[in-house]
Design a protein that fits this description.
Elements lengths: L1 H12 L3 H25 L8 H4 L5 H6 L3 H4 L7 H21 L2 H25 L1 H4 L10 H8 L1
């Protein structure tokens, strides 16, 4: 276990943005999972964090919680969701870094996530099919990862 932590510390010291993004996503996933497991095991009514970290298409609620435009990109609730997002981020991120610099990767990750959130809000506020869905929350790094892939 010590070698894993040492490897993570080394990667952070090297300023490897790709590994930093993956570690941040995994750390948030693990923290939320542990909170959920502890709450379930001890039958504690846990505070539902999802409305405060997931982006919503409800513009009045979004104005009250603008940080969700950034936090939704690092939140995953399902193991396979984070697994495939992080695998794709790692594989395509390495290809991206062979042509561009790490600063471009970090910027594209954020801008792709913001573009995904904006497209989500536009879609759920204009398309009649989605208007009936009552503003479901959106989470995950899929928009950011897709921006890097494309």
């Amino acid at each position: 276990m010590g070698t894993i932590l040492e490897n993570i510390k080394y990667r952070f010291k090297q300023k490897d943005i790709l590994i930093e993004l993956i570690i941040i996503n995994i750390a948030v996933f693990l923290i939320l999972s542990v909170i959920g497991i502890i709450g379930k095991l001890f039958k504690i009514e846990t505070f539902n964090l999802l409305p405060y970290i997931a982006v919503t298409s409800d513009l009045t609620l979004l104005i009250k919680r603008p940080w969700t435009l950034l936090t939704y990109m690092i939140v995953h609730l399902d193991f396979f969701h984070i697994l495939f997002n992080m695998l794709m981020l790692f594989w395509f991120g390495q290809i991206f870094l062979s042509y561009f610099n790490p600063k471009n990767l970090g910027s594209l990750y954020l801008l792709g996530g913001l573009a995904g959130a904006i497209l989500y809000m536009i879609s759920f506020n204009t398309i009649p099919y989605y208007l009936e869905m009552n503003h479901p929350p959106m989470i995950g790094a899929s928009a950011s990862v897709m921006a890097i892939i494309f």
